[in-house]
């Protein structure tokens, strides 16, 4: 018999403390909303105070906060985590989501854009994951989800450096899952396909782009931020307690057409 109380208990994040980087819009906002709706107390990070406030206003329950932090500033990341530990009893869930993309082929990539994407998407992520990993190792529990991309599994020619950072993050996830497994800490990645968020606003506003793109997607549509937010929330929680070092591809079947 279907037992709804069992499902509720399995998915509940009641009393858990979660941190989401890049929580001010798009997928990070949707992840924060989903985590809060399942009972977690969520801290969102980003650079823009007003969009962070907009996310905060959407979160169910109490105890949420926003911290202005540029993850490419490694000293700011260090300061955030030491302050976080002073003010919170635990870090149960960490979602590394902040990233950006500049479209260019490898041969065309601008040096400043290369540095920018590596600093934010990779070095900032590694710094955050080092801190989150150390805290969770000490606690002997925790769950980490890293936002990767289908471009971290199958490189796209005009997203060359972005792809490089996401491929690298896939390696980071596997290394961290190996080292933290014995401490009861799970580390997984989520690789979305094309999702309707501000990161794609320019491309999706181009005449006919969306329609043309959807032809390559098996489900024939673009995904929503909520579809990724809910999935990441489930992946972070107890329903996937025996999964670590894995990549969950949520792309409407886009990869089926690329291989
Ligand atoms: N949308 C897609 O189609 C898609 C597909 C595959 C993977 N992804 C991945 O999913 C994640 C979220 O993407 P999205 O589509 O939601 O992008 P988005 O709408 O552009 O949001 C990116 C978030 O990252 C934050 N951010 C960017 N640089 C930052 C920095 N230096 N320090 C702190 N926060 C920073 C932004 O906040 P501030 O501006 O406030 O700093 C924003 O909240 C990314 O890792 C992306 O690579 C997205």
Word description of this protein:
The protein is α/β, with parallel strands linked by helices. It is built from ten helices and nine strands. The protein has helices spanning 4-11, 26-37, 49-58, 74-87, 111-139, 160-180, 201-205, 209-214, 225-236, 254-258, and strands at 17-21, 41-46, 65-68, 93-96, 142-147, 185-192, 195-196, 223-224, 247-250. Strands 3-2-1-4-5-6-9 form a seven-stranded parallel sheet, with helices on both faces. It has a two-stranded parallel sheet with strand order 7-8. The site of NADP nicotinamide-adenine-dinucleotide phosphate (NAP) has 29 residues, from helix 2 and strand 2.
pLDDT below 50 for ≥5 consecutive residues: which ranges?
A: none
Fourth CATH level, the homologous superfamily: NAD(P)-binding Rossmann-like Domain
Question: Mind telling me the CATH class?
Answer: Alpha Beta
Compute the separation of the termini in Å.
Answer: 40 Å
β-strand percent reads 15-25%
Task: Tell me the CATH topology.
Answer: Rossmann fold
CATH architecture: 3-Layer(aba) Sandwich
Count of individual helical segments = 10
Question: Using only CA atoms, what is the Rg?
Answer: 18 Å
> Which sheet architecture does the biggest sheet show?
7 strands, parallel
Q: Which whole number gives the mean pLDDT?
A: 96
Domains, number: 1
Question: What strand line-up does the widest sheet have?
Answer: 3-2-1-4-5-6-9
Category from helices, strands and their pairing: alpha/beta
Helix content: 40-55%
Care to count the β-strands?
9
Shape: globular
């Amino acid at each position: 018999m279907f037992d709804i109380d069992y499902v509720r208990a399995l998915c509940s994040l009641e009393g858990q403390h979660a941190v989401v980087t890049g929580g001010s819009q798009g997928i990070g906002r949707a992840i924060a909303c989903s985590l809060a709706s399942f009972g977690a107390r969520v801290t969102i990070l980003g650079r823009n105070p007003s969009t962070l406030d907009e996310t905060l206003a959407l979160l169910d329950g109490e105890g949420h906060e926003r911290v202005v932090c540029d993850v490419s500033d490694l000293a700011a990341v260090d300061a955030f985590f030491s302050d976080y530990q002073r003010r919170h009893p635990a870090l149960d869930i960490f979602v590394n989501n902040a990233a950006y993309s500049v479209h260019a082929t490898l041969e065309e990539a601008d040096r400043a854009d290369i540095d920018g994407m590596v600093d934010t998407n990779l070095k900032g992520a590694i710094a955050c994951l080092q801190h989150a990993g150390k805290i969770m190792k000490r606690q002997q529990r925790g769950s980490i989800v890293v936002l990767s991309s289908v471009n971290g599994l199958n490189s796209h020619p005009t997203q060359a450096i972005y792809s490089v950072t996401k491929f690298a993050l896939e390696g980071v996830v596997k290394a961290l899952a190996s080292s933290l497994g014995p401490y009861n800490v799970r580390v997984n990645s989520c690789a979305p396909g094309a999702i309707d968020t501000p990161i794609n606003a320019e491309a999706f506003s181009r005449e006919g782009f969306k329609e043309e793109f959807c032809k390559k997607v098996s489900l024939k549509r673009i995904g929503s931020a909520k579809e990724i937010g809910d999935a990441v929330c489930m992946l972070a929680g107890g329903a996937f307690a025996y999964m670590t070092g894995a990549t969950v591809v949520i792309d409407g079947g886009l990869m089926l057409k690329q291989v």
